[in-house]
């Protein structure tokens, strides 16, 4: 696993990201940090309503821990561009990990954050893959993963060529 992460970091250093990607990475970081803070304070009861009854942990602990994780991820997206590829992968994994809670909100018909109809809760589910894609694209993780998983000698568009030594 460590070798994969090292290769991903190297691929990330060689991958260029556009100003647009950087702006979207920073926006995602700000949104996540804000959402994390809201988990810990003013929107706590709304987030508590989203923790499914079947989840094997106390709901308040889940809300607090997910809030802390969102603050950490958001902050890393904002201030750690050197590790953007790894943070992007972690962000995408986080969005996948919380998806079952969103499904539970739809199936159990739980109202929270103005999602008070089956349609609004279903539309929210459709937005989750968009968040995963946003995290992977804005951090350059998609391209870095293509580099790491491509056969040797394959050219991937957008890479900074190595300088001869």
Description:
The protein is mainly α and 165 residues long. The protein has one domain (8-148). Helices cover 70% and strands 0% of the residues. It has 8 helices and no strands. It has helices at residues 2-14, 19-40, 44-50, 59-79, 84-97, 99-107, 118-138, 141-149. Helix 2 (19-40) runs antiparallel to helix 4 and helix 5 packs antiparallel against helix 7. The radius of gyration is 18 Å and the shape is elongated. The chain starts with a helix and ends in a 16-residue tail after the last helix. Mean pLDDT is 86; it is low at 160-165.
Which band does the percent of strand residues land in? Answer: under 5%
The whole-angstrom Rg is: 18 Å
Structural class of the secondary structure composition? mainly alpha
| Largest sheet features | none
Instruction: State the total count of DSSP E strands.
Output: 0
Helicity level, as a percent range?
over 70%
Helical element count? 8
Which term fits the overall shape?
elongated
Distance between the termini: 29 Å
Short description:
This protein is an all-alpha fold and 165 residues long.
Features:
single chain, 8 helices, 0% strand
Task: Explain the layout of strands and helices.
Layout (H helix, E strand, L loop, with lengths): L1 H13 L4 H22 L3 H7 L8 H21 L4 H14 L1 H9 L10 H21 L2 H9 L16
